[in-house]
Amino acid sequence: MNKPLLPNSLRTGPDEAGRFGTFGGRYVAETLMPCILEVEEAYKAARADPSFEAEWRHLLQHYVGRPSPLWHAKRLTAHLGGAQVWMKRDELNHTGAHKINAVLGQILLAKRMGKKRVIAETGAGQHGVATATACALFDLPCTVFMGATDVERQQPNVFRMKLLGAEVVPVTSGAATLKDAMNDALRHWVANVTDTYYCIGTVAGPHPYPQMVRDFQSVIGEEARAQMLEATGRLPDTLVAAIGGGSNAMGLFHPFLDDASVAMHGVEAGGHGVDVPNGHAASLTGGRPGVLHGNRTYLLQDEQGQILEGHSISAGLDYPGIGPEHSWLHELGRVQYMAITDKEALEAFQLCTKLEGIIPALEPAHALAHVMKIAPTLPADHIICMNMCGRGDKDIFAVAKHLGVTL
Amino acid sequence: MNQPGKSRIASKFAALKAAGRGALVTYVQGYDPDPATSMAILRGLPGAGADLIEIGVPFSDPMADGPIIQAAGQRALKAGATPAGVLAMVRDFRAEDDATPIILMGYLNPILSYGPERFCTDAAASGVDGLIVVDMPPEESADLAPFATAQGLDLIRLIAPTTDDARLPGALRSCSGFIYYVSITGITGTRAIGMADVAANIPRIRAHTDLPIAIGFGIRTPDDAGQAARIADGAVVGSSLVDALAKSLDAKGQATPGTVRAVLDTVRALANAVRG
Ligand SMILES: Cc1ncc(COP(=O)(O)O)c(C=O)c1O
Question: Does A12 reside within a domain?
Fold first, then answer.
């Protein structure tokens, strides 16, 4: 059953240069180079130190509430009339999304490195809230860069971050969304390298971030694997996860990469439709390789190599890049990537809420919409496990607006 | 055309050394605020006292640039800037000036998009002498460096205050043309240069290289430029020129009759200080 896909494991990347095949790397200005090498060294040392892992695991259990449950969504399954739908319930984590898993790991690392302050970028605000939360817990000053457009559409999370004591810097450069927030966070880091740790929210950025964030998020897939074996005696047949930068997806997929029987579907944000120029945020489906934010990966860009903003109803998905490991898995064909439109995600959001009593975030609503498409075409003994990586509380205002409801 | 071993960059630094002074290196973005004004500025730079010219190739996400140069990039992109358009400017410039070195400064993605090999071929044929690719550290140069070398283009590297002794020799070994010493830990145009720190760092770099060293990123005033050109072999001024340009624009961000002069007058003041 668990035959590896290839004689060589797909789980050993990246190489010493931070590469997954031709993707990844360390494309940063010289000023930052020594700094990311320092993070890399510190991370290597931390991983070799059992007390680091123990402290992180302790926090995951007692602070975050892990393991998160694995839920057999029977009503949704019956409604779709095909494959079984199971949900990895990372929306139940403290702070409401998977982001906290990697944030706690990184904040422990920042502490070990003796850094005095923390910065982060955020799109939907979930990573910002998670970072602000961990910084409150560890008494570290925290600055979160957030696109001014996102500040507008994610008001509840902005207020949450402020309550937690973080400074929220609205970013007005470019289109004032996630990529611009990341630009400004990197610019700030360049100017404050000695005392500042940059806590990146996804599996992108220069090496070692794609690896490090993946390693921390792999707790999702490790738990899901064990829970599924315990509940059903076998592995799932298909994994489904939404993709912004790709961290919740990488976290679910990675522990299963060498299980050849397990299919994996990464769901990108199709926005208004992948045929609409600059109307979506599907980097793999509608982009091509390039270099941005420290790594070589698939990007939304025009013919001149200028980066496009992309669009998604979900502020957490409209990132013009994707983690380099996904680009590699895409080209290998190990993971299939597809896109779901705003409209499909909104429908899934409502259906899940009514049938399962779970209000999903708009990001995993994309994964759910894909599940709704494939489940009816599959037999009843086919097991789909989707990553319910965030809860929808933050999105109810945006959803109400789209449904024409005034709150 | 470049002849290996006798590049315009090497000749210029050698001539200035013989004349007993450092170089003024000026930076403006191609197509800022529009192609015609940008071309007029470029043509006027040598006469105003620029010894070497850096032309910024606009990119949507200039990670190492502060607000002043970010805004320049946005203006230039709006005016239709492309790498090919910037190369055409260099060709036009070369029709009249075969001596002033031209260095393109930008980010890797537009070059990758153009095709690294074709870009280097076209750049050399257009009369470009060197490239500064901000987000391409020596470790990530394999996609571009062989083509640049084959075309006789110098790859000018940034060396930062954070570049420690462990990295320094390797980073310097990959340089040609001159060394661009980033005088501040930060992005362009945001912090004032700490001349004492810089002066202390230059010998550390000299110990590992015979290439000329130019200092940039934090130089705003003629006085800064004069000092930097004496401490090292050249001073690079960008944000303050772009700032002068921006301040000369009308409310809609369009060039005014005073735009070219605003930039060139600033260059003249800097040149006086450097030649002082
Ligand atoms: C709930 C949720 N899911 C997904 C994402 C997208 O990020 P990633 O693809 O890294 O999981 C975000 C980002 O903000 C999020 O808040």
Answer: no
Confidence (pLDDT) at A4: 45
> Is the pLDDT at B136 greater than 60, yes or no?
yes
What is the interface pTM, i.e. ipTM, of the complex? 0.95
Q: Which residues of B are catalytic?
A: 54, 65
Q: What's the pLDDT at A152? A: 85
User: Does residue A17 sit within a domain?
Assistant: no
The helix (H) or strand (E) run that includes residue A401 is: helix A396-402
Whose CA is closest to A386, among A3, A80, A62? A80
The one-letter amino acid code at A398 reads A
Atom of ligand 1 nearest to the CA of A122: 14
Query: What is the count of structural domains for chain A?
Result: 2
Q: Are residues A192 and A325 in the same domain?
A: no
Write the residue in B112, B159, B171 that is nearest to A305 by C-beta. Answer: B112
Are A27 and B136 inside 8 Å of each other by CB? yes
Whether residues A245 and A271 share a domain: the answer is yes
Contact B234, B25 (CB under 8 A): yes
Ligand 1 centroid – CA A316 distance (Å):
5
User: Domain check: are A91 and A177 in the same one?
Assistant: no
Q: What does the mean pLDDT of chain B come to? A: 95
Are B61 and A183 in contact (CB < 8 Å)?
Answer: yes
Q: Looking at A158, A184, A209, which one is the last position of a domain?
A: A209
Mean pLDDT (whole number) for B186-200 = 89
Which residues span the domain enclosing A223?
A: 65-96+218-402
Structure tokens at A286: 């509608």
Nearest residue of B to residue A28, measured between CA atoms:
B135
Q: Which atom of ligand 1 is nearest to the CA of A127?
A: 14
- Taking one residue from A and the other from B, the number of pairs with CB-CB distance under 8 angstroms is 118
Domains with residue ranges and CATH for chain B: 8-184+196-271 (3.20.20.70)
Q: Look up residue A22 and give its two tokens.
A: 């031709």
pLDDT in the model for residue A6: 52
A299 in the same domain as A371: yes
Substitution candidate for ligand 1 out of A126, A203, A388 with most atoms within 8 A of CB: A126
Pick the last residue of a domain from A192, A209, A226.
A209
Indicate yes or no: CB of A306 within 8 angstroms of CB of B185: no
Q: For residue B29, is pLDDT > 60?
A: yes
Per-residue pLDDT, B64 = 93
pLDDT of residue A177: 85
Task: Give pLDDT < 50 ranges for chain A.
Answer: 1-5
- What DSSP element (H or E) covers A150? helix A148-153
A150 vs A171: CA distance, rounded Å: 9
